[in-house]
Design brief:
Elements: H1 9-16, H2 40-54, H3 81-98, H4 117-120, H5 123-130, E1 136-140, H6 146-159, E2 167-171, H7 174-188, E3 197-200, H8 201-211, H9 213-216, E4 223-224, H10 227-240, H11 253-265, H12 270-277, H13 285-302, E5 304-305, H14 307-320, H15 322-331, E6 334-337, H16 345-354, E7 361-365, H17 380-383, H18 385-388, E8 393-397, H19 405-416, E9 437-441, H20 444-460, E10 468-472, H21 479-487, E11 492-495, H22 504-517, H23 522-529, H24 537-549, H25 564-577, H26 584-602, H27 606-620, H28 626-635, E12 645-646, E13 658-662, H29 663-666, E14 671-676, H30 693-707, E15 710-719, E16 722-724, E17 727-729, H31 734-737, E18 745-746
Parallel strand pairs: 1-7, 1-8, 2-3, 2-6, 4-5, 6-7, 9-15, 9-18, 10-13, 10-14, 11-13, 14-15
Antiparallel strand pairs: 11-12, 16-17
Helix pairs in contact: 5-6, 6-7, 8-14, 10-11, 10-13, 11-12, 14-16, 19-30, 20-21, 22-23, 22-26, 23-24, 25-26, 26-27
Length: about 750
């Protein structure tokens, strides 16, 4: 499922399991292959003997060294005929586009504008900006100024008299849309940009579905549930269906939610998703299909929408309701989509239906940065755009304003070796003599010491710590580095962990608010009833059933029960909070007064958690409408990450912390110096990808994204080996092996 703002965090958790993946790696070669048949202790003994030879000074020319191996030393990644045919088809589309003659015509604007577009944009950017009519595909390489293109294109539209209310700008974060339109307003010194609808797919869908609810025969008062609420609801359905989760290790609620969401995002059946990607769960297909059916019915009864519903209902309504589709076609005559490579199948269909009227659609993206397939993103969408719109204009923006040319020479080769996608050759006017550096160290401890030495060297050279990033494929790749940073008292933040809106006590308070708005919100009721002594899952289900049937909670029915007093206390609190004269912050204050004793009895660190509730009060202060607050909180949760870890500063106020981040979390960001550790095959690319060419290609794009975050210095390191459960990894990443040796310095 593709949520609005924080793409990568779910993947961080999944990647942690790489260290326990039972991939067959030969301990004799260190390469993926057939299992040797040795048990784990035998393998360790073999490893020790091998390392004695590999790591000795006289063995510097060992067979797994970067200078002595070629891509032919790696096992071929097998592909079925269907995948091969698809790759050939996609590449034929790409070749057709690449064979088109380049546009070399100088663009002369026929009148003066507030903005000097000729001087502020390069020729490719200008071409994208001034092409307003018809379909346009903008392939914008990393660091090439795609945001600048969108900002100036909106401004150019407004300067040419296009009604701002005719323009729709779809992004993947509300912050991106807000910043873009804010820049337009500043450039033009005109408030008309505020009338442009700019926002995420989910926020757009929420707005449209509520506005046209009558036409679509849906209730405008639906409640939006997040992924965790969705998983809880699925667990509730499983319980109601009496499917014993102990039977044959029945999959956990989050896994079931992932399967159901994946099927919906990609227009697949649950059976297809399980048979292709979760083969170990084939025995549960029927039960998971049953749970999915129950989940759908339950949401409908309780007027709940999950993130996928927002997309599915909008897509289905556009497809099936011609009157509705015509109204939106007439309303939004100019459509722009940012990061088009991150759209899923449903989002692509929504865009196509919206553009059906005028075909004035511009999509901007970079297929080389498509790295979110685990959330349903489909890199084929951007590649197939010319297939949907054969006459579309294609603009390539290849001048990079972020990195020096040496880094671009390196990253260009990463993508040059890809099996699928548009060929790009980024160039920069930023010149720098030093090549990217690749270092192989003795072991993980030595790698960590080397990296931290390098960080201190940067610091002595005047590079601020917050301009340095360590980017990892999975967080466990940085465990030795974190220890070394802590040992030397170097401040850092680890981007990831539990987000603010996922904390238990925050979700509890939000659940009380949701009941105040929608008294039939069964998911929220289940969450809050469990805190009443004497109310278990069965009793909670009975209470909720009566709430739905009787259109409210009748407290008198439970006056003889052992939980009557506490249930009444809850009912009184909710009734107080429903008062429309009470502000949203006031409602949270009422909840806090009720909830504090529960929190105090349950959590030893309740005083710290109260601070989070105070944050909620502050956040709510900008709202005078509960529905708007809850919708924004679900679709655009606070960016403050309370799971972020920091270590003590060297000197308070002296240094801002450096960043340790997963690569997924780093997309769209940049640093002066980027360090990528653990660049061993089986880690980058992940061992889990090695059975599929499409997955290996996504890993290549992930490596490209990591390297292209660097502005000035790029350092890639690896230990000589990593023992990974029953895997022994010692070959350098195949992506490094493919790069010409003159593109980096290796030691």
């Amino acid at each position: 499922m593709m949520t609005d703002d924080i793409y990568p965090d779910d993947q961080d958790e999944k990647d942690e399991s790489d260290q326990g993946t039972r991939k067959e790696i030969s301990p004799e070669t260190g390469k993926p292959g057939n299992n040797s048949g040795e048990n784990f202790l035998d393998m360790i003994e073999s490893l020790a003997l091998r390392q004695k030879n590999i790591l000795s000074p006289e063995a510097s020319g060992s067979s797994n060294d970067l200078t002595s191996i070629t891509i032919n030393d790696f096992p071929v990644v097998e592909s079925d005929q269907r995948t091969i045919r698809k790759i050939e088809e996609l590449n034929s589309i790409v070749r057709a586009i690449e064979s088109r003659p380049a546009s070399n015509a100088d663009i002369h604007l026929d009148r003066s504008y507030k903005i000097n577009y000729n001087s502020e944009l390069n020729s490719a950017q200008l071409e994208a900006v001034v092409t307003l009519n018809g379909p346009v595909l903008v392939i914008a390489g990393a660091g090439s100024g795609k945001t600048r293109v969108i900002v100036h294109r909106v401004a150019f539209m407004l300067e040419n008299g296009i009604d701002p209310e005719d323009i729709l700008l779809l992004t993947f974060t509300r912050k991106a849309a807000s910043e873009m339109l804010g820049r337009v307003q500043k450039l033009l010194n005109d408030v008309s940009a505020t009338k442009v609808f700019g926002g995420t797919f989910h926020s757009f869908s929420n707005y449209i579905l509520r506005k046209y609810a009558g036409l679509l025969n849906i209730s405008a008062g639906f409640t939006i549930i997040d992924d965790e609420d969705s998983a809880d609801t699925i667990d509730l359905i499983r319980s109601e269906l009496k499917i014993d989760k102990k039977e044959k290790a029945f999959p956990r609620k989050n896994r079931i939610q992932e399967i159901i969401s994946s099927a919906r995002n990609r227009n697949l059946t649950i059976r297809e998703v399980i048979e292709n990607e979760f083969t170990g769960l084939k025995g549960f297909i029927g039960q998971i299909e049953l749970i999915s059916q129950g989940y759908t019915k339950y949401k409908k009864i309780c007027n709940l929408f999950d993130y996928d519903d927002l997309m599915d209902v909008l897509r289905d309504s556009l497809r099936d309701n011609r009157i509705f589709r015509k109204r939106l076609n007439e309303k939004f005559r100019y459509i722009m989509v940012d990061e088009y490579q991150d759209t899923n199948v449903v989002q692509k269909e929504i865009v196509e239906y919206l553009a059906e009227g005028s075909s004035n659609i511009m999509v901007v993206g970079d297929d080389s940065q498509s790295i979110y397939s685990f959330r349903g993103a489909d890199y084929e969408n951007i590649l197939r755009f010319p297939q949907k719109y054969p006459g579309c204009k294609v603009v390539r923006i290849e001048e990079n304003y972020r990195s020096n040319q040496k880094i671009l020479d390196f990253t260009n080769e990463i993508i040059l070796n890809s099996k699928i996608g548009y060929r790009k050759k980024l160039f920069s006017r930023i010149q720098y003599e030093a090549l990217p550096v690749v270092r192989k160290l003795y072991d993980q401890e030595a790698e960590a010491e080397f990296i931290v030495d390098k960080i201190l060297e940067y610091r002595e050279q005047g590079v601020a710590l917050n301009q340095i990033a360590i980017l990892v494929r999975a967080f466990w790749h940085a465990r030795y580095i974190e220890l070394e940073l802590a040992r030397r008292s170097i401040p850092y933040i680890a981007v990831g962990g539990l987000k603010f809106n996922e904390r238990k006590h925050v979700k509890d308070v939000i659940s009380y608010l949701r009941i105040m708005m929608n008294p039939y919100d069964a998911v929220a009721w289940h969450r809050v009833l469990k805190y009443i002594p004497g109310v278990g899952m069965v009793t909670a289900s009975k209470i909720i059933g009566k709430i739905v049937a009787e259109k409210g909670l009748n407290i008198n029915e439970y006056e003889k029960s052992k939980f009557a007093t506490e249930l009444k206390r809850l009912a009184i609190m909710l009734e107080r909070g429903k008062d429309t004269n009470i502000t949203v912050p006031g409602k949270i204050e009422i909840i806090r007064e009720y909830y504090l004793p529960i929190l105090q009895a349950r959590e030893y660190d309740y005083q710290v958690r109260i601070l989070d509730i105070n944050v909620l009060v502050d956040l709510a202060s900008g709202y005078d409408n509960l529905e708007k607050f809850l919708t924004d909180f679900a679709l655009d949760p606070p960016s403050k990450n309370f799971g972020t870890r920091t270590v003590p500063l060297i000197d308070e106020g002296e240094d801002n912390p450096l960043t340790i981040s997963t690569i997924h979390s780093a997309k769209g960001l940049e640093w002066y110096s980027v360090i990528i550790p653990h660049a061993l095959d089986g880690l980058i690319p992940s061992v889990r990808s090695l059975n599929s060419i499409t997955e290996v290609e996504e890993e290549r794009r992930l490596f490209y994204v990591a390297c292209s975050r660097a502005k000035h210095d790029l350092l890639i390191t690896m230990p000589s080996f990593v023992v990974n459960y029953d895997a022994f990894l010692s070959y350098p990443s195949r992506f490094l092996v493919e790069i010409s040796r003159d593109k980096f310095f290796y030691k």
